[in-house]
Each structure stands twice: as structure tokens, then as C-alpha cells.
Design brief:
Blueprint lengths: L4 H4 L18 H5 L1 E10 L8 H21 L2 E6 L7 E7 L4 H8 L3 H4 L3 E10 L5 H9 L8 E10 L6 H13 L6 E8 L4 E7 L4 H9 L2 H4 L3 E10 L7
Antiparallel strand pairs: 1-3, 1-4, 2-3, 4-6, 5-7, 5-8, 6-7
Pfam family, one: YCII
Protein name: YCII-related domain-containing protein
Family: Belongs to the YciI family.
């Protein structure tokens, strides 16, 4: 599946935290809320499509994205640009349960047509995700999208357990980066056997993001492993 960056910019994306600390500085960001996050993962059994068939599925996929946003169930989405590609994109839903989010995501044409599979979990993010973007574009539809790439990291368990002392240092480490201007937000996830948290950086170099993640005590201590991605987002999607 190939996302059209400008089309998806209308949905944006943002991150926040549970055992992490929000990268935002305002009370709105710290108040937080739980979203259901769905990764659309490339189906390894994908076959090559004709140009016409690919365009048909893509058009249906984009129509579904806008329909979900219009219903108010989808608050954020965005494409990934990885080489090799593992995750095609991400949906952030404001549904109350993972099960409802999974049901909605599995109705996406790219999933129905066996182009993608889904990975679902709950995520502790900032309240008001995407609201500033929607406000600005409602007031002035000509507001520039200002698309850019953000390093996007999934932190996963290296083993079965999480050392309490190490994880306390892990949370303190990300709290200390709050004012650096490099980390937009970082947040804990629930309901997944391997994922522990998500970190999304501002538009910094991949190498710089990798260095910051490697210095996380839980990563350097072998408690967490790193899954690094590149995510496209419009401006103004994170609460300030």
C-alpha cells in the first residue's frame, strides 16, 4: 500500500505516555487519554498487483480513511517510510476498546484485500490529539500541510520480565528529555505481549534519534529492544 502523504496529512499523528513522560509541556498534554493504536503491517504473502488494481485498492483505502475521520472514530493516521518496509501506516482511534478498533481496522480495504495485517494495542497519549491541526485547517483550508519525517520508535520487551529499577531510570530518562525540543512525545502501551512504549521525535536526523534511544537505560541495559521507523506527519498535530 502506498500512502499519499498530502492526503493523509489531514489526519496527522501524536504520542504521549503512561510509564513514560509526555514530551509536551502544557497541562492539556499531561492530562492524557487512552487511544487504540493500529499498525497496518505488510502482509508477507502480498502479490504484485496491476496498476489498475493497485489504484482501485488505494482509492478505496483513502475513502475509508476519510469516512472514519468524518465519523469521528479516527483521530489520527500517517504513513511510514521504511526500507525495507514492515509497517505501511498507523491508525489512532478514540474507540473505548481494542476489540472495536480491531474490527474497524480489519474493514479497511487494504486488510480486506490481504495487502496488510493489523497489530492493535492501547496507547496512553495526550488529550486533544490533532485538534490544533483541525482548527487551523477549518479556519483556513489553505493552511500548508508542512509535511516532514519524524523518527518513530517502538520499544519492545527483550524478555519476559521488566526490571523495576531499570524501568524507573527509563521513565526518568525520557522525563529529562522533555525540554530538549527533540522528543515530541513518548508513551506507554497496554494490551500487547511485546510492545512497551512508543517514542516519536521531532524532525531530527535518524542517527541522532538512534543515539538518544540507545542511551535509554532500559535499552542499554538489555531490558528493551528498539524497532525504528520513519513516519510522515503534517505540522500542528501535537498539543502544545
Amino acid at each position: 500500500m502506498l500512502y499519499r502523504r498530502t492526503a493523509l496529512a489531514v489526519l496527522g499523528l501524536g504520542l504521549g505516555l503512561g510509564s513514560f513522560v509526555s514530551g509536551q509541556s502544557s497541562s492539556a498534554a499531561h492530562s492524557g487519554r487512552v487511544y487504540q493504536v493500529v499498525f497496518l503491517k505488510r502482509n508477507p504473502a502480498r502479490t504484485t498487483l496491476s496498476k489498475e488494481e493497485g489504484e482501485r485498492i488505494q482509492a478505496a483505502h483513502m475513502a475509508n480513511i476519510h469516512a472514519m475521520a468524518d465519523r469521528g472514530v479516527l483521530v489520527s493516521a500517517g504513513p511510514f517510510e521504511d526500507k525495507p518496509s514492515v509497517i505501511s501506516g498507523v491508525f489512532f482511534f478514540n474507540t473505548p476498546t481494542m476489540e472495536e478498533a480491531r474490527k474497524i481496522a480489519e474493514a479497511d480495504p487494504t486488510v480486506v484485500e490481504h495487502r496488510n495485517t493489523v497489530e492493535v494495542f492501547s496507547w496512553h497519549g495526550p488529550a486533544g490529539l490533532g485538534e490544533e491541526y483541525k482548527r487551523l485547517h477549518k479556519e483556513n483550508p489553505a493552511t500548508p500541510e508542512d509535511m516532514g519525517v519524524h523518527p518513530f520508535v517502538i520499544l519492545r520487551r527483550a524478555g519476559q520480565g521488566l526490571d523495576t529499577a531499570v524501568m524507573a531510570k527509563h521513565s526518568a530518562y525520557w522525563a529529562g528529555l522533555r525540554g530538549s525540543g527533540k522528543v515530541l512525545a513518548a508513551g506507554a502501551v497496554d494490551g500487547d505481549v511485546s510492545a512497551v512504549g512508543l517514542v516519536i521525535f521531532d524532525r531530527i536526523a535518524d542517527a541522532e534519534a538512534a543515539k538518544l534511544v540507545a542511551e535509554d537505560p532500559a535499552v542499554s541495559g538489555g531490558v528493551l529492544t528498539v524497532e525504528a521507523h520513519r513516519w510522515w506527519s503534517a505540522a500542528h498535530v501535537f498539543p502544545k
